[in-house]
Amino acid sequence: MSLLSVSGLRKSYGDRLVLDDVSLTVEPHDVICLIGSSGSGKSTLLRCLNLLEDIDDGVITFEGREISDPRVDPREVRSRMGMVFQAYNLFPHLSVLENCTLAPRRVHGVPRAEAEARALLLLERFGLSEHAAKHPDRLSGGQQQRVALVRAMCTSPTLLLLDEITAALDPELVGEVLEIVRAEAEAGMTMVLATHEMAFARDVATSVCFLDRGRILEQGPPAEIFSAPREERTRQFLRRVLPA
Amino acid sequence: MSDWTPSQHELDRRRLRRRLRTRSALIATVMTVLVFVAAALVVTGSPGWPSVQELFFNWDDAREALPDIWDAIWLNIKMFLIAEAVILPFAMLIALARVSRSPWLAPLRATAVVYTDVVRGIPTILLVYLLAFGVPALRLQGVTNSAYVWATVALIISYSAYVAEVFRSGIESVHPSQWASAQALGLTRGQTLRHVVVPQGVRRVVPPLLNDFVSLQKDTALASAAAVFEAVFVARDYGNYNFNYTPLVVVSCFFIVMTVPLARLCDWLTARMRRRELAGAL
């Protein structure tokens, strides 16, 4: 059974229709890249999946249960689904290690020693162990975003949502963040990510969705989408973002 | 967009959301009524209630004292309106002195630190005594002896120190990157404060500012210590002659009626600012 499935999803803010009849299936170990210009609905789709937005129609199923049901406790869903934002959103008053152990300890009831051991292991794996005791604002943007990724993974989620996590970083730092994402993808983590990094999407994605004005216009394996797009809109978009 | 009709599933979901909302509203209503009824029963069921009711909640005494209190409360209102109007700019100046960096302003900075430290340490009622009785005793030429004026000045001195610290905490809570980006645009430190940092800082401290003003409104009653004929003095006066303290409750009601609109106004202003700045954002 698929890990996550979306069908007929619709979301509007007042008169503005942001997502229109979106359907998507995510199998375990999939890496789904959402591409498309700003305002095409990529972020909103991720926010709907994480139940940060109430949807206007459609069904979202996660681990075999409909989570778009109003009776579902969103916190329970989010404890199994990690999310990383464009602006890192680390807690500035906590050290890196405390950022990483907050949810495991408070939400999942993991004992402190165990939570810290796991966080340190992950920080170590991503070259951040020397920063564990520092506060986030002392780190570079790339380091902060890597910490945010570690924080999201500390709870061992079954699905990771990444919302343009490299968009606020300068090009030099993009690589170090994407390396982590790539390593996680190769380790079998299931991910849905909105991204502007086409080369990365081509390398890592199992499937690429092109969103245009709130619809998934085209979906397929990266080789297909990037070399032989079916839709004219997709071709236009790729011409603009891909180096000639 | 016009050709879309909600699916059956969505209609069911809306019905369910509505039902959950109704249930929340129901729980809120029932709980509220239950708690307040229980509290009322406990108070009115207590053995001493009849005598308390006679002493503090007597309708006839309330009506009899009302005209005098009505006249006296204007004095309180005038006091805090004048005090608030002076405190806001004065406290802002103290706060700005404290965050100044120029070496020329070092004495001013030191004065501001000492002022807030010392004044906040003195109980307000002592300041009222000190000024309302002390200044007239100096027998200075051309200076008023009105206890009312000097009580108001005492309140201004005391509350300026508190409000200055509230302003300063707001100013210091603005992220350093705001300083950096304003100075990168070529603004001076003063301009940065005036156009970027202070406006943001003040917005953040509206709730504690309101706290201080509500507190000030009530502390106008301290003027009664200097024999100013304000509302609490009048009410106590009535009690001393008639052995009934209902007028004190009446005065409390007046104070509540004065502070609630201020609280609502501040909530409304804060909500409007949030709406404007976060419209459409996360």
From TrEMBL, chain A:
Key word Methyltransferase present:
no
Tell me the keywords, alphabetical order. Amino-acid transport, ATP-binding, Cell membrane, Membrane, Nucleotide-binding, Transport
Pfam families cross-referenced by the UniProt entry: ABC_tran
Principal localisation: membrane
* SMART domains per record: AAA
PROSITE patterns under this entry? ABC_TRANSPORTER_1, ABC_TRANSPORTER_2
InterPro entries listed in its UniProt record:
AAA+_ATPase, ABC_ATPase_HisP-typ, ABC_transporter-like_ATP-bd, ABC_transporter-like_CS, MetN_ABC_transporter-like, P-loop_NTPase
Gene Ontology molecular function, alphabetical = ABC-type amino acid transporter activity; ATP binding; ATP hydrolysis activity
Q: Which residues form the ABC transporter domain?
A: 4-238
Which membrane topology describes this protein? Peripheral membrane protein
- Kindly indicate whether the keyword Ubl conjugation belongs to this entry: no
Q: Where in the cell is it found?
A: Cell membrane
Q: Which GO terms describe its cellular component?
A: plasma membrane
Q: Which PANTHER family match?
A: AMINO ACID IMPORT ATP-BINDING PROTEIN (PTHR43166), GLUTAMATE_ASPARTATE IMPORT ATP-BINDING PROTEIN GLTL (PTHR43166:SF9)
Family listed: Belongs to the ABC transporter superfamily.
Name of this chain's protein: ATP-binding cassette domain-containing protein
Per the UniProt record, the source organism is Nocardioides agri
